[in-house]
């Protein structure tokens, strides 16, 4: 975020606004002309922008959560069209197991809170796991896919100022 603040301060006539949301919402905002560029996480292989990095998704759970005695895997997740939630449910179903939603929220911090309360397991990028003791491996938790971090722009030939910001973000990310 520091690079965005420095960019905004160095160009006081440019309006810079950050919209933290789900990638699906960013994609629609790009399409509708409400955003000039977006940094999005999406399943590796389906990205349409410039890939900056790869992130491995991991399962997180409180150590006290007993997955062996649950009929269905209890999920703590972001509500709405969340790609991480979709990855979790898809991999669980592909492994022949069942899941249920037990905790829904709007942020990764909320997912962590639901997980730490023992409500269920969550899915986050390993880079976003501030407490590595939460990372959980279990025979009922199948391997999760990698995700990409990509920059996408609203139009094919964006204004110079948008391209300058995109280059600065690429350098940092």
TrEMBL record:
The protein's GO terms of the molecular function aspect are: DNA binding; DNA-binding transcription factor activity
Keyword check for Cell wall biogenesis/degradation, yes or no: no
Q: Which InterPro entries match?
A: LTTR, LysR_subst-bd
Q: Does the keyword Transcription apply?
A: yes
Q: Which residues form the LysR substrate-binding domain?
A: 2-129
What positions belong to coiled-coil segments? none
- Which of UniProt's keywords are assigned here? DNA-binding, Transcription, Transcription regulation
Q: Which PANTHER family match?
A: HTH-TYPE TRANSCRIPTIONAL REGULATOR LRHA-RELATED, TRANSCRIPTIONAL REGULATOR
Quote the protein name from its UniProt record: LysR substrate-binding domain-containing protein
From which organism does this entry originate? Answer: Granulosicoccus antarcticus IMCC3135
